[in-house]
Amino acid sequence: MPSQPDLQTVLESGLEGHTIKAVDEPTHAESFPVGEEDSESPRSGDENTPGDSSSTPEDQKNGNIAAQQRKGRIGHIVKRDDGTEEVIDLASSNASLDNASKNSFALTIVSEKVFPYRMREWERKDRMAILSPPLRELIRRVIKFYPGIGLDASQVTFPEPYGPLFFYLDEICQEAERSVDKGFQEDLDCLLEYYRKHIQQKHLQIRQMFQENIVQFDDLWALFRPGALVYILDKFAQPCLHTIIATGFRDPEGYVDPDEAFTNKRFRRLCVDMWSVTWDPATNLFQRSTTTRTIRAYTGSCPIESLPFYPMNYYKGGSEMAIQELRGSLEKRGLRWRKLVSGRPSCQLYNGPAEDQVKRGVQNLSERVVVDGTTTGITFMEERGSRVVRYPFLTSGLVSGTSQLRYMERENPIAPAGTNDEFTHFDDFDPENDFSSIQAQLCPGTVYCYAIKSRSWYDIAVSHISEVDWNKEALEHLVLSPDKKEMLLGLVQQHQKNKDKIVSDVIPSKGKGLVLVLHGSPGVGKTLTAETIAEYTQKPLYPINIGELTAEEQIVTRLQIIFERAARWDAVLLLDEADVLLEKRSYEDLRRNGIVSVFLRMLEYYEGILFLTTNRVETMDLAFQSRIHLAFKYESLDSQTRRQIWERFIKRLNPLEAQGKKELLEALDDVQEWNLNGRQIRNVLAIAESLALSQARRRGALRYSHVETVANQTFEFQDFFDDASKERKAQVGEVNPGRQFKERRSRNFI
């Protein structure tokens, strides 16, 4: 920690010419880097600019005579239980005065009974009211933001334990020394004398503990100066910075610790309002978001760094180098977060912790995701004129070290009326503008994304996101004629680039999509075509499971959402095995007819790229023909094509399987005659490799015999399937002689 004045020196010299800072809390200029425009912004409750000696209407009414009567006088107002008040002049042997005299002091100490925490006794608390206009003006020039003390009111009030004096008394004295007009001097001396006699000792004790990097629960308020930066870990244990708004102790009524829910234990707690920067997808602007964190009561003293959150200047023992490294890393992360949430949706690779937005559980996620700042789970609330935004990472419990201290979720704010006006320019901030350094540091460390493989929305950590390494070589493994490859690539690549220039329908937004049908026998490469085209063109592949669509009650709504997402993400949309949606309409099934009709209409207005694969193109409804731009037929695999597929899969085997590769390549003339499709060839090799590994307990044991064994099992299953199919057809023929067999499909769509 930075050096602090000697405690004994301060106690002996009092406050004349020498005061002490709380814990070397950074001033606004220290909290927010020099050279930025932040320091020029207006601040909450600062109606008069620094140096302005204008007074309130009440002061002007009272005039100079009343102000003169106040000079150097301290009053003590004791509020009795029966509602009456006793007014005492502390400078005249505690002589009692009439009630009308209480406004004739420079400052008053108001003593009254309060009941701050339920399950406790009533206790008497004091608050200091500054009535002297020159002293109030001096205080306003130093304290620009401090909720709850009435900076813009007719009197400034410092409730016990006198936080504003703890944080700012040194600066008030320094400002007094610089001032030319000393009209406040007698009143300031009066305040300092009272502080030395009644307050200073407790504040010095707190500072002494802070020098030892420990704090008691009742003294936590002295850690969190409004406007200072606070260090906190999110649910993924990532560091974040927030700006303190206000603090306050709360009683345990209505509060149950989340980890003690079964025992119903209730705890007193300190609540801290704080704000950070966030993204508003509804307005496409950056905003400030507020949240309230809580530390529950504990006994004895606690190391400051073991708290769930603490002032940034205590990070790593107050090491300036560590703090600068922290702020530098947060600034870099914040700029990346800004780009992710405000830019176009992008496909990224993620490997790290993630929170499922449906199941609300944290798990490890390793797959490609689409980060889309326009479709998040953020909810916005308007609360007493100020925007309240709650990110999921702001509402999670956390254990820090061994202290077992927690911060709670869903707390009501201490100061719901608003936040520091110094940073109002952070609200409604246009993404086209550049971030300041502190703005980037106050950004969260998480973003929302859609996991394509898992088909779910997650909250993920920015620091675990990396660029996708697109595999353009995958197209070489696609066994397709060069002409078809070239045509498919050209269509997909030029669609997004020139879709607004290509001839479309006379109706706006109609006919701008690209719909392609791939039809043929199973395992001939239809699905692989869509996958490799998406990989080569560096577009996310968004596959649709037809089972999900037909099993849901709101199939039309689901289709609309999927089509809208795919177009916005510039994704390649794949509807695999689309027979159910493409099949001809009939008079028998009106529900299914309705689904097909809706799907037809969606195709006309879809602006993205859609691949439809089917094995039964002959059953397609005639209305689809005019809505499909091109259809590619995939012939059954011949021996030469199978040879190419075998050869490419063999070359992709583990490098340790050198002997197995050699044997298989030498046997290509034999294996190419096996009547297997591309998917079956892949499966045979994969299972054979696993079989060899399980038998030899090591890599490099794969041989041709393993592949032959697995292939024979595949042929046996094929024969069984073919025999069963023939038997079913024969039975149908016996029941209905002369009737051609027609496969029945389930029509339970919704």
UniProtKB/TrEMBL annotation:
Start-end of Basic and acidic residues biased regions: 18-28
Residues of the AAA+ ATPase domain: 512-636
Location of the region described as Disordered in the Swiss-Prot/TrEMBL record: 1-74
InterPro entries in the record: AAA+_ATPase, AAA_lid_fung, ATPase_AAA_core, DUF7025, P-loop_NTPase
Domain of life: Eukaryota
One Pfam short name: AAA_lid_13
Biased composition (Polar residues): 1-11, 50-67
MF term (GO), any: ATP binding
PANTHER family reported in the protein's UniProt record: AAA+ ATPASE DOMAIN-CONTAINING PROTEIN, FAMILY ATPASE, PUTATIVE-RELATED
Name of protein: Putative atpase aaa+ type core
Source species: Phaeomoniella chlamydospora (Phaeoacremonium chlamydosporum)
